[in-house]
What we know:
The chain is α/β, with parallel strands linked by helices.
Amino acid sequence: MFYNSTRNSTVKVSSAEAITQGISADGGLFVPESIPVLTEDEIKAVGDMSYADRAGFIFSKYLTDFTEAEIHYCTDNAYSTKNFETESIAEIAHLFDGTYMLELWHGPTCAFKDMALQILPYFLTTSAKKINLDKKIVILVATSGDTGKAALEGFKDVEGTSIMVFYPEDGVSPMQKRQMKTQEGENVGVCALKGNFDDCQNGVKAIFTDNEVKNLLDEKGMMFSSANSINWGRLVPQIVYYVSTYAELVRDGEIESGEKINIVVPTGNFGNILAGYYAKHMGIPVNKLICASNINNVLTDFINTGVYDRNRKFYATVSPSMDILISSNLERLLYILTDGNDELIKEWFGKLATEGRYEVTDDIKAKIREEFFAGCCDDTQTKQTIHEIYEKYSYTCDTHTAVAVKVYNDYKAQTGDTTKTVIASTASPYKFSKAVLEAVQNGESDLDEYDMIDKLAELSKMPIPSALADLRNKPERFNDVISKEEQKKYVLEKLGI
Ligand SMILES: *Cc1c(COP(=O)(O)O)cnc(C)c1O
């Protein structure tokens, strides 16, 4: 299997090269040349494997330059009860008849990003070795909250790497901020940026593609790589849990083999739902991929109209990990849907960069509408949904997941579709305890962050994840705040250049 760049189809690299480079030199994203297809029997067989073996099986289809031993080394280190609080790794909870919550947050940072970021450091260091790269890998991350912490946990003290994380100063939850400021490890750095997530991401992208910076690093025996979901090594582990969940539902008699399901994903950068798209095209029977957004609903509008327009107000919401106006991974979907038309992709994403807007062709609009449904909701509706689920099903979900539930309810009301449905539950409710607690008890709370957690534990009867409970006693190590203009200089300084 080789990988092309979405902005230059003649680029052809191995998975080890795609993973170490993160983003193609032309600014495009790496996509596999084709999507490997599983047979019905293969999918069934997945149901009887451990999560680590399920992952290994999927990876063997995409990372064909990795040996079996290398894949095992990666999956065994990432997907064990050493890092995850449940044996199943990706836990399926039953919400109500035919509706399943795919709890992807039992990892060390309590958000679904762990599913990929626990394994990415192993992919990266293994890939670097494979292609004889004798360089220190410097990870730069822009985060809307969850990626940063998950990447820090994944990379901390991993030999041959260092990691630097930028987050929007006022764009993350108090718990997320505290998680990052208290990060342990000798090879880690964390910095707040005056701006929003898109500023952080644009800055990181600009530094990545800056040739002067690249040469300076090269002289010092270092190279950049990315832990953002633009890295293929982030995306491929996310395909696993959709295949895994389907196989498990078949194994447990919840669905028939071959029966279609809907997949609902609370979406920001379009990584998680794109993994669902890949799973579908690998042979998982999917009826609709339902893309749920908060009030930063640029994707809802895009899927419904074919016009992507980021020229709009940016809102800080109670689901901050979805407060995004540029969904990077959409570029991969459009590349696939245009049958690899790199010229068209360059034209659209060029327009996005200069005018903040592009419109796809009617043919692409139709293809998108066939596979996707999109909806959005505001903070009030998000909180109402948390309250309703708590009252009706004694289930407590976080703000991001609630957006997905609300959009799914709207979808059902609008279409009458009764297809069984998997809802991606992307964070522990404890990670967004203020909003969740206020929603559950239907009133404001002035407790401090930790008392809120205790109160939420009392009401939800869910155990507090140990990683969050332990934060109370950790000292803050990182308090830098910079402007976006200072970002490049800051990175070079921290690297000793
Ligand atoms: C990152 C994140 C999302 C959005 O996922 P994308 O892959 O960026 O679409 C949703 N919910 C939570 C809790 C997240 O951390």
